[in-house]
Amino acid sequence: MFATARLADFAPDAVSNYTRLRNYDLGSGAHNHVSRLSPYLRMKILDEADVSRAVLAQNDARSADKFLAEVWWRTYWKGWMEQRPAVWAQYRADLTRLHNAVQTQSGLRQKWEAACLGDTGIAPFDHWANELVETGYLHNHARMWFASIWIFTLKLPWQLGADFFLRHLLDGDAAVNTLSWRWVAGIQTQGKTYLADPSNIEKFTDGRFTDVRGLATRADPLDAPPLPERQPVPAIAPYSGAPDARVGLLLHSDDLGAPFLAKMKITPVSTAYLSTEAAQSPWNMAAKVTAFRRDLARDIAPMAHFTDTPEGVIDWARDNALDQIITPYAPVGTTPAALAHLRGSDSAPLTQIRRDIDTAAWPHATAGFFKFRKHIPDLLDRFAR
Ligand SMILES: Cc1cc2nc3c(=O)[nH]c(=O)nc-3n(C[C@H](O)[C@H](O)[C@H](O)COP(=O)(O)OP(=O)(O)OC[C@H]3O[C@@H](n4cnc5c(N)ncnc54)[C@H](O)[C@@H]3O)c2cc1C
């Protein structure tokens, strides 16, 4: 499978080339100095422990520090959002309002369409819009420049940019994407914005874009409501199925792995895959993204029943006479609402099972990344050795 092959291929490079060259966006087809593992981490085909373990098998922790920190940034964002789900709810509400505004305000619609179609006249920005739509991937530096130009030069609402990313990125993730856009806009790390700078673009695209003109020269933080109170990472009830129960496994758009099955000695009588992408945006998801995730699900569980509605899961549970459904924990995003719908039905009871690594790491995402980072050595000792 591509994910494990790519990890094996990349692990030896994770130190020298990554540390030196990770900030260079050399263009589509040349992103070799970064791992390109994010679509697989996003779907939990691999988790942070798998990647850290493979890297630490070939490099010492000190020299792999830069790469490992990036890998655990994702965990940090996930844990941060689990403790402030209202931030996602607010983004969703803003998006509904902006969807309406795009339909009714022709000035906004024209600007938004030009940005999404790569037709703004800003050469690197237009290039990245096209690269994203064509490939489903953008280099991290390009994501930062793109988001900055979207917000501070084009003066488009950040939520519409986050939505454009979420519809087209193969790794589009509710927590990582929303919080990264908020970070660029200066509302995540309060007051700290990211300004795209022409000389920085020229240097780190290796001269592909020179003499970029017309970019904003200042980036004042946007206004935003105060952060909601932090709440604990949700507790989940332990699985307590009868030994002879007919258990079904429900995989979904936020987790395609079920590493807990072996430990719990459960062999499901049937497996289903619930796709919840359609609820991510008021606009259509890129077909490439849904197809990519479905293909991954087919690789993992070729015999699975595929559905994109909770009703489809209810039918599957009934047809297989299930006593119980177990499912990987659904983090903040679109899957929890679909699971809540199931719970509200008279379908077989549903138990979510969270990975130990997430249960251990997420509560540490209380404040900034640097506080979280202090826990990484312990997490590595516990999960990646
Ligand atoms: C505006 C914006 C939006 C983003 N949206 C997403 C998104 O929807 N989904 C997503 O997975 N990443 C997102 N990122 C983070 C980052 O750009 C990608 O994770 C990274 O570029 C993926 O490429 P890679 O696997 O080659 O990364 P590598 O550099 O090889 O890093 C290895 C892994 O570390 C993690 N990682 C790396 N950089 C970051 C980061 N800045 N934040 C969190 N985790 C990171 C990823 O899981 C990645 O696969 C966004 C960043 C920005 C600035």
CATH topology of the largest domain: DNA Cyclobutane Dipyrimidine Photolyase, subunit A, domain 3
Gross morphology is globular
> Considering the protein shown, what is the CATH homologous superfamily of the largest domain?
DNA Cyclobutane Dipyrimidine Photolyase, subunit A, domain 3
Residue share in helices? 40-55%
| Radius of gyration, in angstroms, nearest whole number | 21 Å
The biggest sheet, with number of strands, parallel, antiparallel or mixed sense and barrel status, is: 5 strands, parallel
Low-confidence spans: pLDDT under 50, at least 5 residues? none
**What is the domain tally?**
3
Nearest-integer average pLDDT: 95
What's the count of strands?
5
**H/E element order:** HHHHHHHHHHHHEHEHEHEHEHHH
Report the β-strand fraction as a percent range.
5-15%
Task: Based on the coordinates given, report the CATH architecture of the largest domain.
Answer: Orthogonal Bundle
Number of helices: 19
Would you mind describing this structure in some detail?
The chain has 385 residues and is mainly alpha-helical. It has 3 domains: 2-82 and 362-383, Serine Threonine Protein Phosphatase 5, Tetratricopeptide repeat; 87-204, DNA Cyclobutane Dipyrimidine Photolyase, subunit A, domain 3; 247-353, 3-Layer(aba) Sandwich (Rossmann fold). It is 50% helix and 6% strand. The protein is built from 19 helices and 5 strands. It has helices at 2-10, 16-21, 38-42, 48-56, 65-82, 85-104, 106-117, 123-135, 140-153, 158-168, 174-185, 198-204, 260-264, 287-300, 310-319, 335-343, 356-361, 369-373, 376-383; strands at residues 247-252, 270-274, 305-307, 324-328, 350-353. Strands 3-2-1-4-5 form a 5-stranded parallel β-sheet, with helices on one face. The radius of gyration is 21 Å and the shape is globular. The relative contact order is 0.13. The site of flavin-adenine dinucleotide has 27 residues, from helix 3, helix 5, helix 9 and helix 11. Residues 22, 34-38, 41-42, 70-71, 73-74, 77, 140, 143-144, 147, 165, 169, 171-173, 176-177, 180-181, 184 line the site of flavin-adenine dinucleotide.
